[in-house]
Amino acid sequence: MLGNFSFRTTALAMVAGVTMALAASNAHAQALEKIKEAGVIRVGVMGEQAPWGSIDAGGKNIGYDVDVANLIGEEMGVKVEFVPNAVAARIPNLLTGKVDLQMAVMGMYPDRAKAVQFTKPYAGLKIILLSSAKNKITTIEDAKDLRIGVPRGAAQDKAITAALGDVPNIRRFDDDSSNMQALVSGQVDAIGGNTTYKINLDKAAPGNDFEQKVVFNEQWMGVTTKLGDKEINDWLNQFIDKIRADGRLAAINKKWLGEDLPNFPEKLEGVPFTVQ
User: Fold this and answer.
1) Does domain 126-218 have CATH number 3.40.190.10?
2) pTM of this prediction?
3) Which of 26, 51, 107, 235 has the most Cβ atoms closer than 10 angstroms to its Cβ?
4) Residues pairing with 125 in the sheet
């Protein structure tokens, strides 16, 4: 009797598991179609981090990520609705459904890949430490006694904290613009940033002597969706292949970064480009 009960229980559990998996699969299968039916795709971008994402004098979203997102909307045949993000809100905004795609300079790292799904890379930059030319810094340890600003939870926050420990002189700010302003105003002596920070610092403080001191790592960016969302992930990967092949992505890279498109990696350890 007990054996029959156990067998029935196991069988029912298996059926329930299969049903739940199919339901989840169907929900994901419908996600791309739902966007097309709605006629709108909501894309998370940065609002104050040129050249990736910012807002011009006319209130229009502009930048590298914005241009790629507009191509996505054009290819998909839907309108693009931009949602500006704080750095720390990027993944929560995606997981809670406030955006359909996250493109706010989303660095591809193994810890993030446990929470969200990345496509193959469509952009790249370097994570660096910037400071005045007066400060002699060749390694991050040389800066251990300086006040260092970082955007809270960003790649540079993690890199500097890993190197120095969570020391009191690491000052965390809510966004990139606050981090850069802290350096310009003298609140901090150095900041963790990326290779495009210098463009913004030169606009905010012409004639400054800020320079790149330390390179922590090269960061690749992918379009981010929810885990298990295979249809959108497949569509986006095909789209990235297409705009790389026809030169449109290279043109965007040249327009905003002033450089040729980098050689993107074919794989990244711990970061799958497709739904497994």
Assistant:
1) yes
2) 0.76
3) 107
4) 219
